């Protein structure tokens, strides 16, 4: 049994993490701040320390070097990534960017606790003095298979091509552009490239460009000198410098304002960063990966994205297909998520009913992997049996193929039945009399506005009440 010190000031988060770690057989000691942890406990008595970076009083990074060689793993938001990366350079074992998956946290802690992969505590309650039955074999994280690569799942031909492309581009130093709809796993792919690259032992710094206010993103990326921006009471390095020697991911790069686009282009041309308000540039060695769901070619045409920057970013390119283009992978992914979450939650593996598998394959999943993950997670929380069916996933059984009709009776211009439009048409026509527009949109996983727009485009008027 490993002893873990958990330092987190948010009581709800701390309680949830403690329960997770206890389920996996760890002895967990809690503290709400670095000062409380130091005053109440011998920091050298733990096998691992898990701490938030942003705490009242001293930051979690202050624990690095005080724990007698025990690994220190830090939890960070985008605003504190720089501090976490600096702490790793000073000796912290690793860091996790919020929000993170429980399975990801458990796997990371197991990695830093060699030989201490405890079984989840799932023993039944017994009376005092009664014999305790031997525990069954604990669930283990699924091993990599032919259809998995560094957390990416897919056995379809198109995903095997993506896997081959990832392996080919990973050793390169060239800039990589990752394209794909929202929720297709662009950051997961970028992490896979980093883990397979010569830079794997150094920092991977993800930056979600759309999440940083426009007025702050220049300073966040490139740093600033004291007094150069409002509230800058001291100089601060940017995230480009934080990624020194490693990989920098600019997610949703299309959201960068023109001024920052120009600075990024200059950085790619020279390999140098000049902080806001500085007179000297600093040489920085990073591999840049950019990702976006937007059509950059169209943005270049309309002048909202710099053409020179586009060509600099697109030295290498990988496109991630949406789930609707690989329905078989949706089922594989759901089963992989079930295994991983069951392992992280310390419970027996769950399976999908045949009807659930068929519905997962047929669903359009407009939110892609993110939407599927949420559906699987919700189903696991609500499941009372070992199987997960349609109801828990919030899906309907896929419509049966219509009986063949004479060619003369076919609706002119109607999409083929196996297309996404055909599925949408059948679903709406079959349910519009018993479901509200809000319920139809929810089951399709789209907004009411998107439902209305598709009705107009496909010529499916709402029924009169």
Structure write-up:
The chain has 465 residues and is α/β, with parallel strands linked by helices. It folds into 4 domains: 109 residues, 3-Layer(aba) Sandwich (Rossmann fold); 163 residues, P-loop containing nucleotide triphosphate hydrolases (Rossmann fold), CATH 3.40.50.300; 69 residues, Helicase, Ruva Protein, domain 3; 52 residues. It is 38% helix and 13% strand. The chain is built from 18 helices and 16 strands. The chain has a 5-stranded parallel beta sheet, with helices on both faces. Strand 4, helix 3 and strand 5 form a beta-alpha-beta unit. Helix 12 crosses helix 13. It is globular and about 65 Å long.
Descriptive keywords:
465 residues, Rossmann fold, Helicase, Ruva Protein, domain 3, nucleotide-binding, single chain, 4 domains, five-stranded parallel beta sheet, Sigma_54_int
């Amino acid at each position: 049994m490993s002893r873990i010190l958990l330092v987190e000031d948010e009581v709800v988060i701390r309680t949830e993490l403690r329960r997770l770690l206890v389920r996996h057989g760890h002895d967990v000691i809690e503290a709400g701040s670095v000062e409380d942890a130091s005053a109440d406990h011998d920091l050298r008595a733990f096998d691992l320390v898990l701490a938030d970076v942003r705490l009242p009083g001293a930051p979690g990074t202050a624990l690095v070097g005080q724990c007698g060689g025990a690994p220190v793993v830090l939890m960070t938001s985008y605003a504190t990534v720089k501090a976490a990366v600096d702490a790793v350079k000073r000796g912290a074992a690793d860091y996790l960017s919020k929000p993170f998956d429980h399975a990801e946290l458990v796997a990371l802690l197991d990695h830093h606790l060699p030989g201490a992969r405890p079984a989840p505590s799932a023993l039944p309650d017994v009376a005092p003095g009664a014999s305790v039955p031997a525990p069954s074999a604990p669930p283990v994280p699924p091993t990599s298979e032919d259809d998995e690569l560094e957390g990416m799942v897919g056995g379809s031909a198109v995903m095997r091509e993506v896997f081959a492309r990832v392996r080919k581009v990973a050793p390169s130093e060239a800039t990589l552009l990752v394209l794909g709809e929202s929720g297709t796993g662009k950051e997961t792919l970028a992490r896979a490239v980093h883990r397979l690259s010569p830079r794997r032992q150094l920092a991977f710094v993800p930056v979600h460009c759309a999440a940083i206010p426009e007025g702050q993103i220049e300073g966040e990326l490139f740093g600033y000198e004291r007094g150069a921006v409002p509230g800058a009471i001291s100089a601060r390095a940017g995230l480009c410098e934080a990624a020194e020697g490693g990989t920098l991911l600019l997610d949703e790069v299309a959201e960068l304002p023109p001024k920052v686009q120009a600075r990024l282009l200059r950085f790619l041309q020279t390999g140098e960063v000049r902080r806001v308000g500085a007179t000297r540039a600093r040489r920085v060695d990073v591999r840049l990966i950019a990702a976006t769901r937007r059509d950059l070619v169209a943005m270049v045409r309309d002048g909202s994205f710099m053409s020179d920057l586009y060509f600099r970013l697109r030295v290498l390119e990988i496109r991630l297909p949406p789930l609707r283009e690989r329905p078989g992978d949706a089922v594989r992914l759901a089963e992989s998520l079930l295994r991983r979450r069951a392992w992280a939650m310390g419970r027996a593996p769950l399976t999908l009913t045949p009807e659930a598998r068929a519905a997962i394959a047929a669903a359009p999943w407009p939110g892609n992997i993110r939407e599927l993950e949420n559906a699987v997670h919700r189903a696991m929380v609500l499941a009372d049996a070992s199987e997960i069916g349609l109801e828990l996933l919030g899906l309907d059984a896929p419509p049966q193929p219509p009986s063949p009709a004479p060619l003369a009776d076919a609706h002119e211009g109607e999409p083929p039945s196996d297309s996404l439009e055909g599925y949408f048409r059948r679903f709406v026509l079959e349910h519009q009399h018993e479901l509200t527009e809000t319920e139809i949109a929810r089951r399709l996983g789209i907004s009411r506005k998107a439902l209305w727009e598709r009705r107009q485009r496909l010529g499916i008027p709402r029924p009169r009440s």
